[in-house]
Amino acid sequence: MFQSLSEKLDQAFKKFRNKGTLTEADVKAGMREIKLALLEADVNFKVVKDFVKIVSERAVGAEVMESLLPGQQVVKIVNEELTRLMGGSQAKLEISSKPPTVIMMVGLQGAGKTTHAGKLAGMYKKQGKRPLLVACDVYRPAAIKQLEVLGAQLDIPVFQMGDKENPVKIAKEGIKLAEQKGYDMVFIDTAGRLQIDEELMAELVNIKEQVHPTEILLTVDAMIGQESVNVAETFNNMLDITGVILTKLDGDTRGGAALSIRYVTGKPIKFIGVGEKLDAIEPFHPDRMASRILGMGDVLTLIDKAQQQFDEKKAAELEQKIRQSTFTLDDYLAQFDQIKNMGNLDQLAGMIPGMKPGALKDAQVDEKALARQQAIILSMTKAERERPEQLLNASRKKRIAAGSGTTVEEVNRLLKQFEQIKKLMKQFSDMGRSGGKRGRGMGKMKLPF
Predict the structure, then answer these.
(1) What is the CATH classification number for the domain harbouring 269?
(2) For the chain, which terminal residue's Cβ has fewer other Cβ atoms within 10 angstroms, N or C?
(3) pTM tops 0.70, yes or no
(4) 318 and 423 share a domain?
(5) Both 129 and 237 in a single domain?
(6) Do 105 and 75 have their domain in common?
């Protein structure tokens, strides 16, 4: 995400760093680099022009010129202006005071509209809502089936009336069903086209006028760069959209859409799609995204991701097991699953301050190695998993290796890793309990799992 832009901006900031004072010429040279970086990232030309003008004016002001660290002040200004450019603060989805909240999903074919209707419904289901998906795309082959498959995977009901019925009627009947059955959120998946045409827009306008949606969310593919901004502008002019979902931000995108859409349309980006999994969707935070672009990390989103996988009851049980030295190989396996569920390692790395995007581009969770470890553990008896000390016996190790299709060396390596992790976790637990000078202020410390 924004790897190329981040690298180019970092190069531009080198013109400001390590200088005791900055001249207007220094600022002008640095701004030229920033301008080129933004244009190469496919940011709208008008956006770049205004952005560079504002940053330049602030950079030659007293707050920078009289600063002890002018280079850092320039980075701070760029961070603030990037945040402002993308909307300033998070724009949350409006929830209707009188259920159901109706979300109309619009966009071109191939942008991920149907998938993100499901992802959004799944996100709000986790928050305690009762969503209903409504299939109004009666033109694209298998569009209804795709929504039904998503609904089944997420355990969310899908309302459909086949591909011969009028989409406006389907939408109205879907909302009527939601009112009758107590569904408090309705996600209407509308038709898309490969390009914008009058027939598509007329139908979408008709649906809007008949069902009065709480939100109209435009799904835009970030990979098409500047064209995505043109698409957003056209949809906004016709439908007066309330927000944007920017998809495929995990791909090799240049970032122009994220930095231009709010400026051009005046409408906020509300969510971003960051992967193919059904939970790979995030609320859009302009300040966090600006921080990521500038290589400052995004600790808050990293914490959010960890908390989504965090089960307080299980964590308390785990902490108790570690303190009582009853941590088993089954518990060990469960921790791997939690880490795996947090997502792509490279995306997580970009959220750590000081870690450049792409730093772990080739470092993936080794699914095969994890599968082998899982096979080893599952080839043990329940008693062996609960009391690994029984596995000192060589014949047991041979049996487990044979049963898991691995080697005795791999079994030994797993047991050694398990003991090392067990000791490390015990140390954290003891630190949380220790009194005196060393443990002061750590009595309520939580285990980092």
Answers:
(1) 3.40.50.300
(2) C
(3) no
(4) yes
(5) yes
(6) no
270 & 348 share domain: no
**Domain end point (choices 57, 85, 113):** 85
- Does 95 fall in a domain? no
Residue-wise pLDDT for 204-240, tens only, equals: 999 999 999 999 999 988 887 778 888 888 899 999 9
Parent domain of 26: 3-85
Does residue 297 or residue 141 have the better pLDDT?
141
- Give me the count of residues in the chain: 449
Give 360-401 pLDDT, tens digit per residue. 444 444 567 777 888 898 899 988 888 888 888 888 999 999
* Predicted local confidence at residue 134, as pLDDT: 94
Residue 65 lies in a domain: yes
Domain annotation covers residue 449: no
In a domain, 92, yes or no: no
Domain boundary pick from 239, 264, 296: 296
Number of separate domains in the chain: 3
